[in-house]
Structure formats: structure tokens, C-alpha cells
Specification:
The protein has about 160 residues and is mainly alpha-helical. The protein has helices at about 10-20, 25-35, 35-45, 50-65, 65-80, 85-110, 115-140.
Amino acid sequence: MPNLAGGGAERVVVTLLRHLGRSRFEPHLALVVFSHPLIRILFQRGAFTAADTGVVSRVQAFLSLQIPFYFLTILGVRLISALKRNWVLMVVSGVNMVLNIVFNLILMRYMGVAGIALSTSFVYLVACTLVYASIARSLWRRGRLEGVLEPPPTPSLTKEGS
């Protein structure tokens, strides 16, 4: 990450927003949708039964839901570190640990192993939200995002002074 002390925060945020706008999640969605056939083709060959395929494909589909949140969180963590707000990472990690335990216990009762996978995806969603809320708060406090998220002004059609 670049040094953000000399106004680099605006460039990082704008670049991040551009990349997010161009992100394609079709491969991720395909993994969720085609999880069952994929597992059946790759692993169901005798010792791996149809019931096993069902369980594993549900686990894979639920774990696949975390992919976009995981990547966004990784980028956000690097930005938080570049902003020298590492204490935020400690807080987010503590919240993640507690939520992971709670969601695992609740969802495991109703969904079995697939519930643990879904719990992990929920935790990454919460972590992503907390990380980007912290980034936005930090940059707004520093006055670094003013005018960054608004569209540029449109040029006037008439010449000034004419």
C-alpha cells in the first residue's frame, strides 16, 4: 500500500472503487450454483456416496458465499494497516471470534456441517462491513474523502468572460 500521509488515501479509495465496479462475480456464482454437479463428477466414484455428495456440495456452496467478502476484507485490512489503524484489526478479529462461535453453535444445530460453513460466510460479511465502515470513518475524519465519491463537475458549455 502506498504512503497515505501525502494525500494517497484518495487515490487508493478511488482505485479500489473502480476495481470493485469492474469486479465480476460470475465465477463465484457458478461455483455456488454448480456445486452439486461439480462434486458429483469429481468425487462420487464408489466410496463417496450420493449422500456424501449432497453434504459436501452444500458445504462448498455455503463456503463459496464468502469469496467476495474475503477478498474485499483482505483489501480493506491492507488499507487499515496503511492508515496506521491496526487497533481496528484487533477489534474486528475479536468480534469475528465471538460471532464465529455463536453462529457455529446456532447454525450447526439446524444445518449440521453446512451450518458451520454458512457461519463462516456470515462472519466474513460482518468483518467486511466493519472494516469498510472503519475505513470510511477514518478517511472522513481526516477530510480525505471530500469530493472523492461525488461525480466530477460537468464543464460549462459557454466560455467564461464571453
